[in-house]
Amino acid sequence: MAKNSLITDSPSRNNQAPDNSAPEDITGDNSDRTGHHPPKPPLITGRQCRAARAMLQWSREELSERSGVHYITLCNFELGHCTLKPGSARLLRLTFITSGVMLIDDDSGGPGVCLAMPVG
Fold it and tell me: Where is this region: Disordered (predicted)?
């Protein structure tokens, strides 16, 4: 004769109430409990792009050639008519950084640019 085993719906073996609270965030995810994320600041703003280009004395054509971002896209971005796809924003940011321009993030008192090393 087989013993009857007790089957319960409780996930706990110690007769404790189940923990229905949300799991602690250990992933570094900044979302709230509803899954919404605060907006991320852009990798580069149109004003930063225009200012960095001016510091380097580059035309839009030159920046387009150096970065691989289309000239018309640069025009529209700098004038505030569009946002960039993340890949294009990364290309611009990398182009400026490798050319000696530091991009100052929004959390440092507002977005800006400065020269990291003399242009020569």
Answer: 1-47
